[in-house]
Amino acid sequence: MSEEKLVNLTIDGIQVSVPESYTVLEAARKANIEIPTLCYLKEINEIGACRMCLVEIEGMRGLPTSCITKVAEGMVVHTHTDKVMKTRRTVLELLLSNHDKDCLTCRRNGSCELQKLCEKFNIHDIRFKGERSRTDTDDLSPSIVRDNGKCILCRRCTATCKNVQNICAIETINRGYESCIGTACDKSLNDVDCILCGQCIESCPTGALHEKDDSEKVWEAIHDPEKYVIVQTAPAVRVAIGEEFGMPIGTNAKGKMVTALKRLGFDKVFDTNTGADFTIVEEATEFVDRLTNGGVLPMITSCCPSWIRFAELNYPDDLGHLSSCKSPHQMFGAILKSYYANKAGIDPNKIVTVSVMPCVAKKYEATREEMENENGLRDVDYVISTRELARMIKQNDIDFANLEDSEFEDPMGEATGAAAIFGATGGVMEAALRTAADLVEGRDIQEINYEAVRGEKGIKETTVTVNGKEIRICVVSGIKNVRKVMDEVHEGKSNYDFIEVMTCPGGCIMGGGQPIKNSKTRATVDVRKLRADAIYDIDEKSTIRKSHQNPQVNKIYEEFFGQYGSSLAHKYLHTHYSPKQKYRF
Fold first, then answer.
1. Rounded distance, CA 574 to CA 329, Å?
2. Burial of 495 per CB tally in 10 Å (0-12, 13-18, 19+)
């Protein structure tokens, strides 16, 4: 393949040589020249809608948008002339004239891209007054709040929903002055085919989309002397939360996170990774049973609640392919309110379980009717995102970056490297294969790194030979890719035996509840790789790297569940799924 032709241009007096496919914006960034943007998301939303990236180009009429204007040989670009700066300022003032200005109480105060641009352009007053367009709020979903009063119609959310996830749950509706971001028939996100993944939140530059905040409910539980509050944290949280406190992307801040949680007042701080080890032994057992006894294949993982919601809405006839295993935090919550409550002598009615997750769809998952035991107790009472935990830590004036390291508490703090990699796409599959291979072959297999299922590719395929039998594997992330795989399953054309599905591209490390990155960081830094590298580093350094070798897990089976896949294990650790209406109106 021949190299792309280079073109030479001048930007603010600097000679730049870039591939001819580059836009002026990309060329400027290569030359370390900053051009402000609001609507731009590299390869997702390149539409020139916000007009903040306007530049002057000699010989060209008007002020073209740099994000969609291709470079040309000999082009001369000026990015910060008086005309450009005054126009950008006017654009900002027009946006603000139709925008809620309650910044002090906004969820994105301090991290809002619009707010930062207003500060940069020294805007302290709005010249343009008049009627506002619609400012309604949709907060019926258990996961996502949509606030039109803070929307700037950049369309980053709709492009992400359409181009990345291929869901199209939100779109620009109405025309002219009445244009806004809405849904089918202008209903709540709760009543349409939204899968609550939260990728729209990650893409939003303002506070127009944010997670449903449950932190106040958690504070109430912590401060209630009658409650015994247990917190558990997902593997992806520890490699991202440090970013909220100025630490480099991909820092494993587990020790500081545990210390902070103890200081917040939780009675016990446990590791969801232990729950992931339970998920693996149950899921591997279920897969081996299906493989050897003629069960429904391919078996598809069921740890991602957005994927479950998508399947129930779009592939109701194929739900038999899904593993019946609950996700790790739901399994762990069930164990805490049964086995642990009994061992610790605590009334399960007084236990409040809190999950810290990288995913806002976990909030929805915790409210599902299937996640309630026979006594009416929920496996997990509250779910908070990585961002919500960071806000709680800041509320308590905890100097996170300078905290000493602590370990998760016994007896539920012991986990394996297999559990840690759950946070990255391919991790669930790799962890399951490590256990399934040992169970089938009846020995401790030493080659446990399944490199073929790792990486950022949306669809990964490989074949693994176990006990002389070839097992056909598929790992898929991002719903746009999931549709391709599921259409084959639905049509009976799939030749896979085992499929891992994660809704968010890259897996849970890029979940909708993780620290939000601005558009420039998203375009210039491989956040996904940095977080994934940290996840795999935890695995490599772990003493035990197979879930079925976790002594704490095996002890609980000996004392409570009996054996993997037992009837009691199914009672507490498994669930079922059912078709859902795509539109509820």
1. 12
2. exposed
Which tokens in the block code for residue 416? Answer: 């394996």
Backbone angles phi, psi at 396, to 5 degrees: -90, 15
What is the widest separation between alpha-carbon atoms in the chain?
A: 80
CA 197 to chain centre: 7
Q: What is the rounded CA–CA span in Å between residue 233 and residue 253?
A: 12
Supply 500's token pair.
């891992």
Tell me what the mean pLDDT of segment 425-444 comes to.
Answer: 94
- The residues annotated as belonging to the active site are 283, 286, 303, 323, 362, 365, 370, 508
Tell the burial category of 520 from Cβ atoms under 10 Å away from its Cβ (0-12, 13-18, 19+): middle
Query: Tens of pLDDT along 287-309?
Result: 999 999 999 999 999 999 999 99
User: How sure is the predictor about 1, in pLDDT bands with cuts at 50, 70 and 90?
Assistant: very low
211-260 pLDDT per residue, tens: 999 999 999 999 999 999 999 999 999 999 999 999 999 999 999 999 99
Indicate the CATH number of 98-211 among 3.30.70.20, 3.40.50.1580, 3.40.50.450, 3.20.20.140: 3.30.70.20
